[in-house]
Design goal:
Two copies of one chain form a homodimer. The first copy, chain A, has 401 residues and is an alpha+beta fold. Helices cover 19% and strands 32% of the residues of chain A. In chain A, strand 21 (288-294) and strand 22 (297-302) form a beta hairpin.
Chain lengths: 401, 401
């Protein structure tokens, strides 16, 4: 890779991402609510769960077969009188008569006096007696109570995002509800006089608003509850009013647009007097960025170009939001770059790319307005800030979109 | 690995999985419904989408700056009269007077007569004139209409599961709704006299029903809509009635329990006369399996041990269900096994395991009833059928749970 030194006038991606992570980390301490176990899939467990029961609950048979004493089948073949049948679900309190066999189904209680089970495959029976063809040692095919988990033992740790296997364990120990964290609640507020909602006719100079819908989808896909998606014109009064509504209802607010060098930068104009920091981050796309805290609520201000908005989300917000939701980290691979690329000096570049069996290639069209092009991408190709040219075949970092 | 030949008396995992996949593949042809784009995240696009508009919709500025003719700034510095300001959202029909500059914001229409934009950073202005310090060639910082996508060009292919970047593109071209496939509708029907629901007190011989809740969670996590979760005792009349309710409302039915060698195998007893196939698959856990088609609806019958049920789902159902939902395939890695393991001859074994930085290790407790143990696992370790012993350090296949 060719490289030039990074200019010092803007913040680095790493520094700005760290600042955002520090600002958002307190959102880990969220309200706890109890939800029914069948509705707990994907939720983040708020407290460690101990088992309220032994599992297995009682000593039971691992097989369909015959409960016997091992000493009765020490020499085989042997014919034992059949003293009855114990189905799964029966109390299983009838003792095994000495020298006899009791038929047991998988999961049925082992009768008092029995110490092993001979699987049905190794027996023959006429209904009144059973011929056992293969002996068993004490304990064989017997599931002892508490051998999976004992009452009071840890079952699932706090902070786990509940997968189907956790749901299975919670149900198996008979828990009906579990304490989970409320998800982070986010509000999305887009800006720009030129934006109109989908489904309406465009007048000259207007375009469709994609950032609101796209950010809401990106948030939902990363474990965040989207409580509102609103749009403001470039009127500061309207923006301030919608911002207050957003901070009133959400733990975190995302804005798009109004952060760069134009004459009508409503987001910067309203938030800077409230203590917001606006400036340039050494990244492409997505250079102009703002971070504020309004009424205790963090406000992340992304630039308005659709690709800039989405890449800003991927780079600055998604990793910490996934961590706070207990989701697995964003997948990062190292792959050979299939085409040479150039990159601006001093800015970390995230090219939209596609993975092939041979490596990764940039999709055609890398402008920050090329939102249709981004739909054809699967990954971001990460070109370090100091690099200005990358030869084909170079190994590059690639993060899944 | 030590190995012995596979016995021929049972079906192999591969053969049985192929049979299930063939049975389920027709579920790809599902009903199509139109949903609002903001609600389409994760849905499977039923038809290819072409763009209804050019994107960019009109020729616009890529920067905050000054729209000029390149020839006016061929020699710099140069002072040009400022003819006005075009904000984003304005019609932009005012032509650029010859030799003048018009201030334009990012996204604003390029005025007729201009052919490039000089970014504001390379200018100075007193409000009535602008001093341009750096020239630009025709086309620079101008986004031409249709350079992202043209009206009628393909935007997103059919069969794509809609990610946030697709939602962004759909919104950007102004689509309000998209055609998506209805998800596969599944019913879950558990069986067993011994099972009671969570939250109730256990009587002797009873255990909590985890399979219904766990299968429902596993289905939901893999793009399937669960329409009902019911439980039947081992009474064939009750099971038949609940089975009819399930096949009436669902595209696919899962049952658990009642498929092995006991005296009260209600699933096998009811489904075999209806044409169901029941038998042994060379897998551990999960050997006894049943597959039926009732009133045109596939019915997959898994064994009742909770771990057997979940592993059956992972091995036989999850890969094809993910494919039919347009989800990425189950992640399979190859990792060194950290502890030696033994495996039954002739049966492909799926051990519950945990991934460490050094490789993969089995979790303690591999019995098919150890549902709490399964909650501690993250992966299944795949031991081929012919293998009976695997040394520590051997590379093994590992699939994410």
């Amino acid at each position: 890779m060719s490289s030039r030194p990074v200019r010092g006038t803007t913040r680095s991606v790493e520094e700005y991402r760290d600042t955002i992570e520090q600002t958002l980390r307190p959102l880990a301490a969220r309200a706890v609510t109890r939800v029914p176990v069948p509705e707990a899939l994907g939720r983040l467990l708020a407290e460690p769960i101990s088992s309220p029961v032994d599992l297995p609950v009682f000593r039971n048979s691992a097989m369909d077969g015959y409960a016997v004493r091992a000493e009765s089948v020490a020499v085989t073949p042997v014919t034992l009188p059949l003293a009855g049948v114990v189905a799964a679900g029966e109390p299983g309190t009838t003792p095994l008569p000495p020298g006899a066999a009791l038929k047991v189904m998988t999961g049925a209680p082992i009768p008092p006096g029995a110490d092993c089970v001979v699987p049905v495959e190794h027996t023959r029976s006429d209904g009144s007696a059973v011929i056992v063809e293969q002996g068993r040692a004490a304990g064989e095919f017997v599931r002892e109570a508490g051998t999976d988990v004992r009452v009071g033992e840890p079952l699932i740790s706090a902070g786990v995002a509940l997968a189907p296997r956790h749901i299975a364990a919670l149900a198996a120990v008979g828990l009906a509800e579990v304490p989970v964290f409320e998800p982070i609640r986010a509000a999305v507020l887009t800006t720009g006089d030129e934006l109109v909602p989908a489904g309406t006719a465009l007048r000259p100079g207007q375009i469709y608003n994609s950032n609101g819908i796209a950010l809401a989808a990106a948030l939902a896909a990363n474990g965040v509850a989207v409580v509102s998606v609103a749009h403001s014109t470039d009127d500061p009064v309207e923006f301030r009013r919608l911002l207050s509504a957003a901070t009133d209802s959400a733990d975190l607010v995302f804005t798009s647009g109004g952060v760069s060098q134009g004459d009508f930068e409503v987001v910067k104009e309203v938030l800077r007097p409230l203590g917001g920091t606006f400036g340039s981050v050494a990244v492409q796309p997505g250079g102009p960025q703002g971070l504020s805290v309004v009424d205790g609520v963090p406000v992340l201000s992304f630039p308005g170009n659709p690709v800039s908005t989405m890449v800003s989300f991927e780079v600055f917000a998604r990793p910490i939001l996934r961590e706070l939701a207990g989701l697995p980290p964003v997948e990062i691979q190292e792959l050979p770059l299939l085409e040479p690329v150039r990159s601006p000096a001093g800015r970390r570049q995230f090219l939209r790319g596609r993975v092939t069996p041979d490596g990764v290639e940039p999709v055609s069209g890398q402008g920050s307005h090329l939102v249709a092009g981004m739909a054809r991408a699967e990954v971001l190709i990460d070109i370090p800030a100091e690099v200005t040219a990358v030869a084909a075949g170079t190994i590059v970092g690639v993060r899944a979109l």
